[in-house]
Amino acid sequence: MTELQLISTITCPQCRHAATETMPTTACQFFYECAGCGVLLQPRPGDCCVFCSYGSVPCPPIQQDRSCCG
Q1: What are phi and psi of 61, to 5 degrees?
Q2: pLDDT tens track for 9-57
Q3: Is 7 helix (H, G, I), strand (E, B) or coil?
Q4: Please, is 54 exposed, middle or buried when counting C-beta atoms within 10 Å of its C-beta (0-12, 13-18, 19+)?
Q5: Cβ 25 vs Cβ 57: under 8 Å
Q6: C-alpha distances in Å from residue 2, one per residue of 9, 54, 59, 64
């Protein structure tokens, strides 16, 4: 089994600001406020969380081939 990656870089689709964050392992993160422009990011349709939509690494449950949030 591959070791989980818990660090992901979220890139804002509006202003391209990038921030490195630690992903939660016990809950999905549905909202993320961009520190660059203040936009509130939400998951894209079909994605479970902001890390799966805008992060460099998908969330821990998805990395483990499990369903997220559910």
Answers
A1: -60, -40
A2: 999 999 999 999 999 987 789 999 999 999 999 999 999 899 999 999 9
A3: strand
A4: buried
A5: no
A6: 19, 22, 14, 9
Angle at CA of residue 42, ends 52 and 17, nearest 5°: 80
Distance CA 4, CA 57 (A): 10
pTM above 0.90, yes or no: no
2 CA to centre of own chain: 19
Handedness of CA 33, 37, 38, 40 (dihedral sign): negative
Which residue type sits at 53? S
52, 45 contact by CB (below 8 A): no
